[in-house]
Structure formats: C-alpha cells, structure tokens
Write a structure and sequence with these properties.
By secondary structure, the chain is an alpha+beta fold. The protein has 7 helices and 13 strands. α4 runs antiparallel to α6.
C-alpha cells in the first residue's frame, strides 16, 4: 500500500499498483515494482508503514478504521482506541420504544443484541454436546439391550458435564470483556505446558 503526497498532504491512498498521472506526467503501474523507494518518493509516492499499537483482537474488540498521516518523510497508518465488545446482552429500552425501534414481536426488556457471554456459553454447550456424542452409543446400547455402561465412560461423561458447568460459571462471572479475554488467553506454565484459565473439556483416554 502506498500514498500520494502533494504539497505536504496525503491526497490519495493506493491499494495496488496502477497507472497514475502525477504533475501532468503519466506513469505506468510498473514503477511500483521497478523504481526504488527514493525514486518513488521523488514524485510523491510513499510506501505506507503500519502502526498496529492500538489494534486489538477482533474477537473481543471493535477496532476503528485506519487513519493515515504524513510526517517525518513517511506515511503511517494507525488505529484509534478500540472499543470492547459488549460482554452482556443489550436489551430494548423505553427510548427504543419511543423511537419505534422495537420489532413487533419484542418489547422493552427483551434482548436486542446478544453479548459475548451468551455466545461463548453457547459454544461451550456445543463443544460439550459434541464431546458426549462420542460415547452416546453406550447409553443407547444400555437402553436397547441392557448392556451396562463401563465405569470409565460414566466417569468421563460426568466429568465433561461438570467441567462444562464450571466453564459456563466462569464466563458468567467475568466482570467485563477484558476479564473474558483473560479466561481464553493461553500462557506457558513452569512445566512447559500451555493452558488457559478457562481450562478445557476432558477428553476420553483411548
């Protein structure tokens, strides 16, 4: 990505090489590949440098659009302050009702937008269900033929449900979006293992 600087100001952002007319001179798009950095800058074309200092994980935050600035002989693209995504559900308010923004099948106090907590808990539920589905056939066999479920399977299924409940509680109790992010952040432990505070659903030993 490049920018065209004229009279000290950025007048155009160039996302890909293309033919351009600069100071009444037509230049082929090949200049972006064939010319040196100094040659491009001599006609006002500067390669964009990216500053991602303020950019945050989009799973948890809404980043701003990039803004471009020319200073010190270079163009920098940077982000403004990111906004944390809502961790709790957003509900319809009386103001929404006044503004006629509530659908016919909803009312004040109903869910307007689901927050991160709800969505993350649904993922845990889905993962637990998928985990348990691997051993569901033992339960079906017992119901159909009366064959006892091995104790290891019973123990595993109980452990999955217990851990899933713990994970859901941890998500529910998180104070804000950064706290949710922390639950999902993996770090290396002294023994070399990599874990996260939320933990993992147990897997059945083969």
């Amino acid at each position: 990505m490049w920018g065209l600087v004229e009279s000290g100001s950025i007048t155009k952002i160039i996302n890909r090489p293309k033919a351009m007319v600069i100071n009444n001179v037509r230049h082929s798009k090949n200049i972006f590949e064939l010319w040196s950095k100094a040659e491009l800058e001599a006609i006002g074309i500067y390669e964009v440098e990216f500053d991602n200092t303020n950019k945050k994980d989009e799973q948890w935050y809404i980043n701003t659009n990039q803004s471009f600035a020319f200073a010190g002989g270079k163009i920098t693209a940077s982000y403004g302050s990111a906004t944390a995504k809502a961790h709790a559900d957003t509900l319809y308010t009386e103001q929404d009702k006044t503004d006629d923004k509530i659908p016919a099948d909803k009312d004040v106090g109903d869910v307007k937008h689901r927050g991160l907590k709800y969505n993350l808990i649904q993922i845990v539920k889905s993962q637990a269900a998928a985990n348990l589905s691997d051993t569901d056939w033992y339960i079906v066999r017992k119901a159909d033929a009366g064959t006892a479920v091995p104790s290891a399977i019973t123990t595993h299924r109980a452990a999955v449900r217990t851990k899933a409940a713990e994970m859901e509680t941890a998500i529910t109790n998180a104070a804000d979006t950064p706290a949710l992010e922390t639950l999902y952040t993996y770090t290396e432990q002294e023994d070399g293992s990599v874990t996260r505070p939320l933990g993992e659903l147990p897997r059945l030993e083969s």
